[in-house]
Hints:
The relative contact order is 0.12. The chain has a single domain, classed as TIM Barrel (Alpha-Beta Barrel), CATH 3.20.20.80. The chain is α/β, with parallel strands linked by helices. The protein contains twelve helices and nine strands. The chain has an eight-stranded parallel β-barrel with strand order 1-2-3-4-5-6-8-9, surrounded by five helices. Helix 10 links the parallel strand 7 and strand 8. The longest helix is centred in the C-terminal third of the chain and has 20 residues. The radius of gyration is 21 Å and the shape is globular. The structure holds (3S,4R)-3-hydroxy-2-oxopiperidin-4-yl beta-D-xylopyranoside. The site of (3S,4R)-3-hydroxy-2-oxopiperidin-4-yl beta-D-xylopyranoside (XIL) has 9 residues, from loops.
Amino acid sequence: xxxxxxxxxxxxxxxxxxxWAQGLKDAYKDCFKVxxxxxxxxxxxxxxxxxxxxFNSVTCENAMKPGSLQPEKDKxxxxxxxxxxxxxxxxxxxxxxxxLVWHNQxxxxxxxxEHGNFVDKKVFYxxxxxxxxxxxxxxxxxxxxxxxxxEAIADGPGDNPYRKxxxxxxxxxxxILKAFKFARQADPDALLFYNDYNEINPHKCERIxxxxxxxxxxxxxxDGMGMQGxxxxxxxxxxELSDAITKYARVVDHIHITELDVRTNMQQGGDLNVxxxxxxxxxxxxxxxxxxxLDLFRTLRQHxxxxxxxxxxNLADKYSWLGADNYPxxxxxxxxxxxxxYKVLNKE
Length: 348
Ligand code: XIL
């Protein structure tokens, strides 16, 4: 009898403390999905077990980008994307598709002829359509949403809101409209996202909202906004994050945080020229790091009526694109949960 009551009180203690939650996906099941970006090297038994315990959405960190999938015309490289998709299929995990059009890691051959000159816009669209539709159809059973266009808006001052990429040089803003239409034709059920960084910045947020409204007016099926979430321990302030979420919610029905990480150095955003030197983990830096993660999750929980998914950009510091010295994720360079992991789990 005493044993039974001991078990009951232990159980209620666990229940009250929230420790019965198995992982982030369980702790946050009433708020949003919790996702993770993976590359081929994450597919080890130890990491797979961690993914299955903690997350209920998976993104390919690189494997589904055009430059990875079709580096040359009609030469397809499905290996890593298929491995990750098959892992998800085997365990009933759904995926965020990333990404169909981006100026980086793009299948640049689509833009040029054999002499290195731009092809006619029509030729480019034909190639793009084939690429998008082949990829979207292949993963239709497992991918529930796609980042269709990534980072088409410029950061700097100036009147033109669009990034001056080769895509823009050839097509103007029309490639955005086309890409969304091609994706919708290939999978009418997938949610289609525009995805970008510095998305909290009021100036860029305004540009993105105007672009989305304009594209929708012209017939682009844009369902959602992907807020990349490449932050640091100083930025953003929570008021700014709240404001941005509120503004995006006025122009789209779905908002995801798509690539969350928090650096200890001063850089933030999507620049691929990453400074991998983090700040030394003094008590002050550690405290700021924890504070930032807890503030971020508190703010995201407050907006859980608008935010449907929060994805970390890789599983652990060991494999982060920012380098382990930037200390950016909830699991460390040895794949062990940091103190802040438990605090996020318990919604402190
Ligand atoms: C990054 C990957 O994490 C790196 O491994 C790769 O070398 C470059 O791209 N914005 C995006 C992501 O949308 O696709 C980028 O991912 C990070 C910035």
